[in-house]
Amino acid sequence: AKMAAAASDLLTGWCLFGLALLAILIFCWVYVRKYQSRRESEVISTITAIFALAVALITSALLPVDIFLVSYMKNQNGTFKVWADANVSRQIEDTVLYGYYTLYSIILFCVFLWIPFVYFYYEEKEEDGGNTCSQVKTALKYTLGFIMVCAVLLLIGAFVPLDIPNKKNSTEWEKVKLLFEEFGSSHGLTALSFSISSLTVIGMLAAITYTAYGMSALPLNLIKGTTSAAYERLENTEDIEEVEQHLLRIKSKCRDGRPLSSRDRRTLQQLEERLRTLRRRERHLESIEKSWWIKFCEAIRPLKIVWGVFFIIVALLFTVSLFLSNLDKALHSAGFDSGFIILGTNLTNPLNMLLPVLQRVFPLDYILITTIVMYFIFTSMAGIRNMGIWFFWIRLYKIRRGKTRPQALLFLCMILLLIVLHTSYMIYSLAPQYVMYGSQKYLVQVRCNFFGNIVRSLLYVRLFPFNLDQCVVTRTYLFLHKFWFFSAAYYFGNWAFIAVFLIGLIVSCCKGKKSVIEGEVDDDDSDMSDDELSVYYH
Q1: E strand or H helix at 459, and its extent?
Q2: Global confidence as pTM
Q3: Where are the domains of the chain?
Q4: Which of 112, 68, 17, 105 is nearest to 476 (CA)?
């Protein structure tokens, strides 16, 4: 009966996983179609963007599954379930591990081969115009550079030393080191782990840039809202009249046949470009005033404020938890040579306190972890959407509704793939013990003295601190800390993340309301691009 109940639970879990996968694919299709340009859309770039975005979301969902499986092996009283013997638990761990390897291999394939090939193929198509064979050859030539980088990372990973320097000898520390050695030797995929860790460092830089800013910009934009379309249209009409009067004054100088000076010609050209932009704004604002979607958004304005306040509270909770976790590592870890890894927590944080409370009511703790992961993903999307895609100080692409170029969508999906790799370490930083062991409890044998008689077999249930002999470690934790030098880089990256979030929060507070057509109309847009947004406004 117990085995049948366990099988039923697992079947239900697989059904829920299938529904979640379907929901992810639908979301990715809607998201990509919402932002891609109608005039420049290509089937191959659209499919690549949807696939890469789906892989990013599925990979991010693997962390809650990993935590759930190690927790599901044990009862609430700290004993293993009947079906969870050594062989079954090992099979479950291997299944999760192979799931990580599969998804991470797909990410390597996307980042180093498929996305670069599609990007360069489309770039060559714009320049060449029609020779498919030439486009494929040129795209492969440029993609070869990415493949060589991947090969170098795999070779380095295959021979990199895994010895973790140890300055503070302890029994628990030695057990963790043995876990790492078993993890590496039994599966022999060290090279893949090194490559993924290298990409995770790049994802850390992307998270510092985009996720930290998105966590501050998204809530405050919801709270402040946008300016009124009617008010903006009135201001825009006044600007048009002012520019037209200025144009008339300049043109009046050449009525008697005299040529304009070079300065006046430059000014005339700038004013004509400015007038074209203002008239495009006028058409957009007129469409927005008649849009049923904008009217609906105005009706739910109070709900947006509530969501904004909730998101800013969550962002502050994350920041405080991350700060306390990093401070704990700075004070109690073995230092740089150990990757700032600590066994247990000495300084608790709000999230670590909240999760054990939620564990009492299934499945509130898993809902919270899933929500945190999705929050990181969506704030990353918001950060990329608000900032655009930059290479140092050069803006490469803008992410705009209905007007995003295929190359920009490919860049967006690649950045999200890299951020997702770093998300697992961010969650570990917020709740280290929960990510390692989930809601597992274990039995502790104590010696009690009753009326002079010592009883040695009394057992009681404990949740924290952990016990490596009686608890199963998540595969996520072993993957994150396989290389101590990457763990050290993540530690310093967390401090940079906190600093960028605080700077972004100050900047977002000082900025005024966004325009209702923020980023939709630019000077370099063509008049044909006005038709692309009519789908959303009518």
Answers
A1: strand 453-462
A2: 0.77
A3: 24-161+185-227+301-510, 230-289
A4: 68
